[in-house]
């Protein structure tokens, strides 16, 4: 088993660019599957979950190869999110496994809901949803306890390095990878193929640069290349620890929102009643959490980007509860009807038309 795993890891490292392109192509296909055949939405989400889980495993392998290969020099420095999450993964095994389990649940929760809806009763389906939300809430609270900092939307580092920059000897740098029997020599650069005749000078060397129009042009050129405070901070210090009870309370309220929403919806479905209590409750919790959180300084780029993402996520309320039923869905249905008469917009309208029933039927399409 270990030999087969090592061979697969070696194959991944040697063909990482092709595999990355294949993963991206398969994810794009899943957007067009719903409505094409019976249980197409289940096949689409199952494929998406498989691709996400596989990509997470591939990222783990590639990160190990890069860490063990001193010759790897990325052209673009790692993002603040990658630096922060990678530092916590190296520091705490509890953080690493809690984050991985949380991401796996996020990848597969919709597939599990679809299976429960098809195979079991509606009551059992909502019990499964509550079980998933309970586990996710416990894991998020555990991550909060470990880091004592605001949670990021993805607790795992993203693949933000170029796979093509991995040197050919990457497979040999990992202890779990088998050595390749065939070594490909790098191609000879153009400027070394002829040592007798000099090559003509490049056009960039013969033409003078355009004149600077003002001092502002110099500043605009130099500012992106200048170091910021985030560039020299330790990775774990990119997010400041929560200090006051108000900050802790705001973060805990934000973490409890999904569980509260699922619990109130399950109670309403069990009693066969229709109300806006669930929607209004989590909306109030969202506003309270937003009011209690601290205002990060301009230098706290990672924290500011996370809070900006949370603010943008409030647009999801347009797809929930009575807002969806009375405002957003009629607007989309009207758009689909008008787009069907346009040659190009008709394709997009058909895609939207196939997704509207899925938002009505499944909780996790628009869950917080």
TrEMBL record:
Please note every region of biased composition (Low complexity): 168-186
What keywords are assigned to this protein?
Answer: Peroxisome, Peroxisome biogenesis
**What does UniProt give as GO cellular component?**
peroxisomal membrane
* Region Disordered, residue ranges: 163-186
Q: Which residues form a coiled coil?
A: none
Show the InterPro entries listed in the entry.
Pex16
List where in the cell it is found.
Peroxisome membrane
Biological process (GO), any one: peroxisome organization
The residue range of the signal peptide is none
- What family, per the record? Belongs to the peroxin-16 family.
Against PANTHER family, the record matches this protein to: PEROXISOMAL MEMBRANE PROTEIN PEX16
Return the protein name: Peroxisomal membrane protein PEX16
The organism named in the record is Agaricus bisporus var. burnettii
